[in-house]
């Protein structure tokens, strides 16, 4: 997985385009493999992050502050990476969606 520690920002133009679309309008969206990778790897990172939070809880219950801290830090890193990837996907959808004709 590539490093996505910087959260992708959704362009204001993309948000403006998206909010200008009718809510009930069918949409046509062309996505690249990178767009889909962002979604899938972002969801994967969230799932792994959940496992890390469970590991942090177990370490806390076992009174192992070092392992707890490490697991919480990994969960935070995974969450940040997931946020960046999912923002990249959402930005691509918002920027590329056009009403079906």
What does this structure look like?
The chain is mainly α and 101 residues long. Helix content is 69%, strand content 4%. The protein has three helices and two strands; from the N terminus they run αβααβ. The protein has helices spanning 12-20, 33-61, 65-96; strands at residues 27-28, 98-99. A two-stranded antiparallel ribbon has the order 1-2. α1 (12-20) crosses α3 and α2 (33-61) packs antiparallel against α3 (65-96). 17% of the residues are buried. The model is unreliable at 1-5 (pLDDT under 50).
| Main pleated sheet | 2 strands, antiparallel
Number of helices: 3
Helix fraction by DSSP (H/I, runs of at least 4) = 55-70%
Strand order of the largest sheet: 1-2
N-C termini distance: 37 Å
Mean pLDDT: 92
Rg over alpha carbons: 18 Å
**What would you call the shape?**
elongated
Number of strands: 2
Unreliable residue stretches: 1-5
SS strand fraction: under 5%
Q: Specify the structural class.
A: mainly alpha
N-to-C order of helices and strands? HEHHE
Structure described in brief:
The protein has 101 residues and is mainly alpha-helical.
What layout of secondary structure does this protein have?
Elements: H1 12-20, E1 27-28, H2 33-61, H3 65-96, E2 98-99
Antiparallel strand pairs: 1-2
Helix pairs in contact: 1-3, 2-3
Using brief descriptors, characterize the structure shown.
single chain, 101 residues, mainly alpha, two-stranded antiparallel sheet, 3 helices, 69% helix, elongated, disordered N terminus
């Amino acid at each position: 997985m590539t490093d996505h520690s910087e959260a992708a920002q959704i362009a204001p133009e993309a948000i403006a385009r998206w909010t200008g679309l009718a809510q009930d309008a069918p949409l046509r969206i062309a996505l690249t493999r990178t767009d889909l990778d962002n979604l899938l790897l972002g969801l994967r990172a969230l799932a792994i992050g959940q496992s890390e939070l469970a590991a942090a809880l177990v370490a806390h219950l076992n009174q192992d502050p070092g392992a707890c801290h490490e697991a919480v830090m990994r969960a935070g890193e995974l969450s940040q990476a997931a946020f960046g990837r999912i923002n990249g996907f959402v930005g691509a959808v918002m920027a590329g969606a056009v009403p079906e004709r």
